Amino acid sequence: MTSKKLFMAITAMLFSTHYFAQIGINTSSPKQALQISGSGTGILQPVIRIEGLNSTNNPAHENSSSVKRVYADSNGTLVIANNSQTNLAYKITLPDTVISGGTDRAVASQTFTLEYPSIVHVEAKVGMTASDELSRLTTTGQTLRNGQARLFGTYYKFTSAPSGVLTNTAFGQVIIPFNTTDDGESQAAGIFYLEPRKDMYLPKGTYTLALYGYSQSSILDFEVNKPDSVNNLSQPSQQMIISITPTSY
């Protein structure tokens, strides 16, 4: 009886393959050349298992619990990418940095290498403190009350990049204009928070990205991530973050 059933199953499969050029596994009505049907729950209970892609047989896995994306190369071969080919992220804590009036200055920088064309997202949380709170008791404070707009802010630029990518060109600018004629005290007191960000499509290669702060007024200095007056500590939350997502392999 068992042999008869096996014969019938093989005959049916050969018939289906011959007349419809389609093979179904766990389905009697395949819609593609090869259709595998079934159900699973979550990524750890897959419908299909390929032994050559598991953590024992493939060094792209860091450990037995890692999860990787599967890609098809130009030959149609299924492969998985290791960490150097998948998403990367850098977090750089901003140092205490004084921006002299009328100048710009690099606050932080990071060098990274793209193995493949990628979408690069960069953002930062920057706290800038004015050196003069516009007090009536200082010459600078009195001068700054003439109603003229003064600008300060942040931007990014590549200080080195592959051929074809502009360097030393500002992007992702965040600018704060400030002006007053008021005679009140401490109008520029506290921390001004700026969050410059930018998304870019970049070719593969090695880059150095720098975050800059600047003050347009020659008589007004600023300080990035100035330590507090109580504990003399900077804020660890003031960071530059770079995240990288490859778009092709």
TrEMBL record:
* Keyword Signal listed: yes
Q: What protein is this chain from?
A: DUF4397 domain-containing protein
Q: Which UniProt keywords apply?
A: Signal
Q: Give the signal peptide, or none.
A: 1-21
| Superkingdom classification of source | Bacteria
